Amino acid sequence: MAQTSDETILKFPILIGDIGGTNARFALLVDSYAEPREFPIVQTADYPNIDEAIQAAILDRTSIMPKSAVLAVAGPIDGDEIDLTNCDWVVRPLEMARSLGLEDIVLLNDFEAQALAVVALGEEHMVKIGEGEAESAASRVVLGPGTGLGVAGLIHARRSWIPVPGEGGHMDMGPRSDRDFEVFPHLERIEGRISGEQLLCGRGLVNIYRAIATTDSKPAHFTTPAEITTAALARSDDVAEEALAMFVTCLGRLAGDLALVFMSRGGVYLTGGIAQKIVTALQHPRFRKAFEDKAPHSALLRAMPVYVITHPLAALAGLAAYARTPMRFGVETEGRRWRSRRSTAT
Ligand SMILES: Nc1ncnc2c1ncn2[C@@H]1O[C@H](COP(=O)(O)OP(=O)(O)OP(=O)(O)O)[C@@H](O)[C@H]1O
């Protein structure tokens, strides 16, 4: 059933939070206009559960008592106990409402928050990769290589922005160039297949690097994604350089495929921890070449802009925009919103 504006609105002060595998970032919104009050980033491993983290890191440091919370979590939101992917916390909204005195809690998917950020952030928080002009009300797509590979669409319909979270990071990826056909047999697979996430995330970069080393019978010195990108950008190691180049090409191909799926004339947005660390590699022509190489639709892709989001707290910016003006966004909260007067997911 369609929600009325009264039902959609969240009461201030609103606690917003982006809960990742390693880090949790929080801020408080006092009203619609004031700048968010930010707090130091919390390491999830430092607290046994999310309620204690919020109490110690936020509520004990301010006299503002939030009435509502909008939290983005990595993991499927299903039922009254939400297990987070990549971290030991379990979110229990009913218990959280009681222990922290919250009247209203909304949980969103972490990549949905990234999609909301794309609307919330201006071009000053983005670096454009290549040409193309965004049509302001057209669909957009967000891809984020980080610990995993997140993908979300963003559709403009009925005067609101509707995030479309999905599992697009798990689409199949195949070899295309002659070199790919040499390297791909050496990639580590998941149940026999090569998905986007086997290549386009931190672990994926290491996978590509090792596969290239094996193909050429060269030693693989590096074990972390940061070591590989550092050596590649410094041009101090051939295998690392080729691994980053292949990563960039594969990201361009997948970004192009997703741009076709969503017809994202509003732009393709790269978020997550890795994209902003490899901006110079993404500015190499190979990224746009792979992105645009989509016959018979190359002209369509050439007109679509690609941006790297550089804002360090992009998801929080998206959550803040949603919390302040929920009517601007078509976010479905059924089964993901807990209000104390009914004490159940609605
Ligand atoms: N300089 C770098 N180059 C390439 N990859 C890096 C670099 N620094 C960190 N990484 C990798 O980025 C990934 C983390 O990405 P990101 O910061 O987006 O985390 P996340 O998925 O949002 O998780 P969380 O929110 O829990 O911190 C890890 O795989 C890490 O190894």
From TrEMBL:
<keyword id="KW-0808">Transferase</keyword>
<comment type="similarity">
    <text>Belongs to the bacterial glucokinase family.</text>
</comment>
<dbReference type="GO" id="GO:0005524">
    <property type="term" value="F:ATP binding"/>
</dbReference>
<dbReference type="GO" id="GO:0005536">
    <property type="term" value="F:D-glucose binding"/>
</dbReference>
<keyword id="KW-0547">Nucleotide-binding</keyword>
<keyword id="KW-0067">ATP-binding</keyword>
<dbReference type="InterPro" id="IPR050201">
    <property type="entry name" value="Bacterial_glucokinase"/>
</dbReference>
<dbReference type="InterPro" id="IPR003836">
    <property type="entry name" value="Glucokinase"/>
</dbReference>
<keyword id="KW-0418">Kinase</keyword>
<dbReference type="GO" id="GO:0005829">
    <property type="term" value="C:cytosol"/>
</dbReference>
<dbReference type="GO" id="GO:0004340">
    <property type="term" value="F:glucokinase activity"/>
</dbReference>
<dbReference type="InterPro" id="IPR043129">
    <property type="entry name" value="ATPase_NBD"/>
</dbReference>
<keyword id="KW-0963">Cytoplasm</keyword>
<dbReference type="Pfam" id="PF02685">
    <property type="entry name" value="Glucokinase"/>
</dbReference>
<protein>
    <recommendedName>
        <fullName>Glucokinase</fullName>
        <ecNumber>2.7.1.2</ecNumber>
    </recommendedName>
</protein>
<feature type="binding site">
    <location>
        <begin position="17"/>
        <end position="22"/>
    </location>
    <ligand>
        <name>ATP</name>
    </ligand>
</feature>
<keyword id="KW-0324">Glycolysis</keyword>
<dbReference type="GO" id="GO:0006096">
    <property type="term" value="P:glycolytic process"/>
</dbReference>
